[in-house]
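Quarterly update from the structural biology core.
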Amino acid sequence: MQTIHDILKLGDPKLYEVCEAVEEAELPHVKKWVKQLHEAMEDIRKVYGFGRGIAAPQLGIMKRLFYLNLERPYVVINPVLKNLSEEKFELWDDCMSFPNLLVKVKRYQCLTLIYRDENWKEQEWDVSGAISELIQHEYDHLDGILCTMRAIDGKSFKWK
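Predicted structure, tokenized:
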């Protein structure tokens, strides 16, 4: 079972690496990876009371995959962000890799997410607001970018 202790912490060099695409031949592995992501996220929820999404590299799985658990689970494979809005908004972002730290960032208000699901079917999802922010956060992990690197300024950090 995956737990908080399996989540890579701020400063781990793997968190700054760019992930490789998931190949269709790797689809049998995706189910196992998603189970690991789900377990780690559930543990974070129990201990810290937050968690709507987690990216594969946070468990050292260096693949372009993230998992969201909103009103239902979403398996997002090889995502692409399109139609980024001109409008942005500011928020205090949190991350499972540093659960007690908040970082003020700017994110796009709206976007279109194109991805493959767990059945390798292409999906398109238009999102805005909190879901848009969440997708941008998880997508950044796949490119080795943490919200600490997107801080608005040097005063954009605070403890929970």
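The beta strands are 53-55, 65-69, 73-82, 88-93, 101-108, 110-116, 122-128, 157-159.
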